[in-house]
Design a protein that fits this description.
Elements (H helix, E strand, L loop, with lengths): L7 H8 L1 H10 L7 E4 L2 H11 L3 E5 L9 E4 L5 H8 L6 E5 L5 E9 L5 E3 L3 E6 L2 E7 L5 H17 L4 E9 L5 E7 L9 H4 L4 H9 L13 E8 L4 E2 L5 H5 L5 E4 L4 E2 L4 E9 L2 H14 L3
Antiparallel strand pairs: 1-4, 2-3, 2-4, 5-6, 5-7, 5-9, 7-8, 8-11, 9-10, 11-15, 12-14, 13-15
Bound molecules: adenosine-5'-diphosphate (ADP).
The site of adenosine-5'-diphosphate has 19 residues, from strand 2 and strand 10.
Amino acid sequence: GIAIYPHAATLATIQDKLMQKQRFAAADLAVPAFRGVNDPADVIAAAQDFGYPLVLKARYGGYDGYGNATLHHADDLPTAWAKLADRPPGVMVEQFVPFIAELAVIVLRSRDGEIRTYPVVETVQQNHICHVVRAPATLSPETLQSALTLARQAVELLDGVGVFGVELFLLADGRVLLNEIAPRPHNSGHYTIEACITSQFENHLRAVLGLPLGSTELRAPAAVMVNLLGARNGPIDPWGIRAALATPGVHLHLYGKREVRVGRKMGHITVLGESVDAAEAIARKAATEITL
Ligand code: ADP
């Protein structure tokens, strides 16, 4: 008798990367070729059909690439299998997508099905971890439209309520494939805190509480977010914050994590600008001034 949003069924599907992809494929949404695998022989068989490289993914519990391994040839399989396969409920494989860019869309859906999308953004990953987000993505109107449509269809299909981060691959021929969806405010939407009329966090609360949805429009022509990723392991020891903040337009967020780990998301910087290039130059420079 207690309402929970997003619905438990939405979360159950998303939690399992294989079930998630199966739902999308069954609804004819464009996804990379994939298959569930039960033993190493299944992976070798998939490699024969899909070719190398092949991406082995833990079905549960992966984030920031921690549940993934790329196989360049059969020799890579034993190590990757040992790393991932003992995690219930097992693993899946995917064809390696030769994407020219990774895109993301934050989709917002209310309890009664009203849907709004934030602008399509380009995300740049480093070692499978999001490093930079460029808003908006500078692409043809047709490509932007296919990205928005696919993202919206994915959230509607799962009856999503709240904010969802939809990750996409852009292919050289202009096609867009669905990578995966996150049932929550997402790193690719952190720029919305300063750069949009209503942030992804506020809109998530509005959606799950049944309040009117806020505008998802940009307040500036462009915005760029750069993640502050850990570069060593140990207690946090922040330096360079004054220097970074001395640049006009720099918005700094530190997450209060006490321990730094290599690649760990420790905070981010957002800069608004007249163009993505102008904002990115300032955000990247400010990020290099900070050491954690
Ligand atoms: P996580 O849940 O850990 O974020 P993802 O499946 O989104 O895992 O993968 C993280 C990153 O790995 C993606 O952003 C992309 O850069 C790369 N990746 C994932 N799947 C593929 C694929 N099939 N082909 C090419 N690169 C991939």
